[in-house]
Automatic annotation (TrEMBL):
Electron transport recorded as keyword: no
Record-given protein name: RUN and FYVE domain containing 2
Domain RUN: 34-166
Domain FYVE-type: 581-665
Length: 673
């Protein structure tokens, strides 16, 4: 078993024994304990060992110091209820070391019966404890929860501890001095500190409760609290226990009531907030209701005014019917003229559309040509990357211009489609207007004919006989009805005329919009012409650049050939040596021996010049059948070196051997290819 685990289990068992012994002794002796009670000191010793287990040490000049005051300060952050207690511990006079503050904090928490609650909250936040404790510490492992659970039983004990006279900074784990008056044999009380090192390293079975109590009996541990009782304490113990039970009950009840009070207070705050919101909303609704009532009164008065004005308008409209008939005829003539103008505009727009389509086709063909040219240019550019870097940028700009032209042409296609749709809609509306006008004219002619026939019949009937007055009166009534119908028809026709005028106005607006679009098309045509000119210029520039590229390519090929020739000459000069005449005894190719007749001879000759008559000496060289090859430097006979070719090192053709002749011919033929 791991030694760290054994230490944790032994500390847990010691905590169990100390808590159990403290509770049993307190219940037998009396629930109220003071600072001189020995089991209470033993409990604080064991609890301090539990808090120090696995504690990280802080390095200083004097060495490492381990204090459990740092973890206890975290309780203030986790539980706001512990803030008052922690601040009171800090303000206690005489406490200078962190160990003394931690001991004072433990005693105050025990007196307030909040020790178990605070430590429970502390071990629940293990991420905060990891800053102060090692991973194998007691409080971080499961044994820490068991130890904290044991501390809940201490709430039945009332502790009255006075910390003013005690020196908690210099206090050892067990109080050295104890009052000998109360316990004269206190020296025999078992001190667990003497056995803690062995308990921490021995297995768990030896630290059980029964074996430990057995060892205590062997060592002579005596519970002197049983001998300290007197008769009075026995008589008053029953009442004291009842009072303490009531006190504990009241404390628990006070805690629950405080919790319920805080919950009720939060609910009251929430209800007050909702009440204030509802009050504001109620005031707003009242203001809205008053404004709505005022608007209702205004609407009633406005409705009465509207009824009166409509009645007057109806009377005036009856008088305007005849005049509107005449204006209707005049407006019809104007509509015919507008229709003819619109038809002419449609023809012009269709012609313009055809022109634009032709231009689009030309642009598409130009685009294809430009794409082919761009592909060829790209191939040339890939072949001549080192020389034509600047030309590549220009070609890329030409590509972008072509793409912009394509996008512009697509936008023009979409606009032309929209205009064609508008034209077809206008034609349909015009046909509908013509049909409706024709129907209205026929109806008016029929009504006029019926009216004239009715009037003629009435005059004839009046002249013929007076007996048919009743019949004529009926016919007059019928004619009045027809008149009313005619008035209604005229009103409807007037409404139709207004609708037609509105539609005509809309058509005019559309025509104006189309005219504006045509102007925009003209501007686009001009831009297109300018772009064509730019494209033509770019083509000319492109052709010029191609010509320059070809010239540069020819010059480059020539320079490359010259460079290759120079390299070959250098190689030949570096690897070959001009053979001396004395060293050559045989032909290099046919291996014929050079005799005296085949040698090269230099001789002096004496001759006279005919013009001056003077005699001079001259050094002349006589060449026989022995020759040098100007390419390889070897000496050959006349048959093996009877060839002449131009070399890079000589401007005129020079003598070469047969082998060099074939090699140079092959090289020249491959260079020309």
């Amino acid at each position: 078993m791991d030694t760290l685990m054994v230490e944790r289990i032994n500390l847990m068992n010691m905590a169990k024994m100390s808590v159990k012994g403290l509770i049993e002794s307190a219940l037998s002796f009396g629930r109220t304990l003071d600072s001189d009670y020995a089991p209470l000191h033993q409990f604080f010793v064991v609890l301090e060992y539990c808090l120090k287990h696995g504690l990280k040490g802080k390095k200083s000049f004097l060495g490492q110091s381990k204090s459990f005051w740092g973890p206890l300060e975290l309780v203030e952050k986790i539980c706001p209820e512990a803030a008052e207690m922690t601040s009171s511990v800090r303000e206690l006079p005489g406490l200078k070391t962190p160990a003394g503050k931690g001991r004072a904090w433990l005693r105050l928490a025990l007196m307030r019966k909040t020790l178990a609650d605070f430590l429970k909250e502390l071990i629940s936040h293990k991420e905060l404890l990891s800053e102060f404790y090692e991973p194998h510490a007691l409080l971080i492992e499961e044994e820490g929860a068991v130890v904290v659970g044991l501390l809940i039983g201490l709430n039945v004990i009332d502790a009255n501890l006075c910390m003013k006279g005690e020196d908690l900074d210099a206090q050892t784990l067990l109080k050295k001095r104890q009052k000998s008056e109360l316990c004269p044999l206190s020296k025999l009380v078992w001190n667990p500190l003497l056995y803690i090192p062995t308990l921490l390293t021995t297995p768990t079975r030896t630290t059980s409760f029964w074996t430990l109590t057995f060892s205590r009996k062997k060592l002579g541990v005596i519970d002197y609290a049983l001998y300290m009782k007197d008769d009075k304490s026995e008589l008053g113990s029953g009442s004291m226990t009842a009072i303490l039970d009531q006190k504990n009950y009241l404390e628990e009840l006070n805690k629950s009531l405080s919790v319920t009070l805080s919950n009720l207070q939060s609910k009251v705050d929430a209800l007050e907030k909702t009440n204030s919101k509802l009050g504001v909303e109620l005031a707003a609704t009242r203001v809205q209701v008053s404004s709505l009532e005022e608007e209702n009164a205004k609407l009633c008065s406005d409705s009465a005014d509207i009824v009166e004005t409509t009645r007057r308008q109806i009377e005036a409209s009856k008088l305007d019917v005849d005049t509107e008939l005449q204006t209707y005829k005049e407006s019809r003539q104007g509509l015919d003229e507008l229709y003819s103008e619109a038809r002419l505009q449609l023809r012009e727009e269709s012609q313009m559309r055809l022109d634009v389509e032709k231009e689009l086709e030309l642009q598409i063909s130009m685009k294809q040509e430009m794409e082919m040219a761009m592909r060829l240019l790209e191939q040339d550019v890939h072949e001549k990357q080192d020389v034509l870097v600047s030309l590549r940028h220009q070609l890329q700009e030409v590509k972008e211009i072509n793409l912009d032209l394509v996008h512009d042409l697509q936008g023009l296609d979409a606009q032309l489609k929209q205009k064609n749709e508008l034209v077809t809609a206008l034609e349909e509306k015009n046909t509908k207007l013509d049909a409706s006008l024709h129907d209205y004219e026929q109806r008016l002619n029929d009504i006029e004919k019926e009216r004239t026939s009715a009037l003629n019949d009435g005059t004839k009937l009046r002249q013929e006989c007076g007996e048919k007055i009743d019949c004529l009166q009926k016919r007059l009534d019928e004619s009045d009805r027809q008149k009313v119908q005619l008035e209604t028809d005229i009103r409807i026709e007037r409404e139709w005329r207004q609708a037609l005028q509105q539609e005509l106005q809309k058509d005019r607006q559309q025509i104006n919009a189309l005219q504006a679009e045509l102007r925009a098309m003209d501007t686009l045509r001009q831009e297109l012409a300018g772009m064509r000119e730019e494209a033509q210029k770019l083509r000319s520039v492109n052709l010029e650049q191609e010509l320059t590229n070809r010239e540069l390519g020819g010059k480059l090929s020539e320079s490359k050939l010259k460079m290759e020739d120079i390299k070959e000459v250098n190689k030949a000069l570096q690897g070959q040596v001009w053979l001396k005449d004395r060293e050559a005894t045989n032909c290099k190719l046919c291996e014929k021996e050079f005799s005296i007749a085949r040698r090269k001879v230099r001789a002096q000759r004496f001759f006279t010049t005919p013009s001056t008559g003077r005699q001079t000496w001259s050094l002349t060289t006589f060449y026989f059948a022995q020759h040098h090859c100007r390419n390889c430097g070897e000496i050959f006979c006349s048959t093996c070196s009877d060839n002449e070719l131009p070399l890079p090192s000589a401007p005129k053709p020079v003598r070469v051997c047969d082998l060099c002749h074939e090699l140079l011919l092959q090289r020249y033929s491959s260079g020309t290819n």
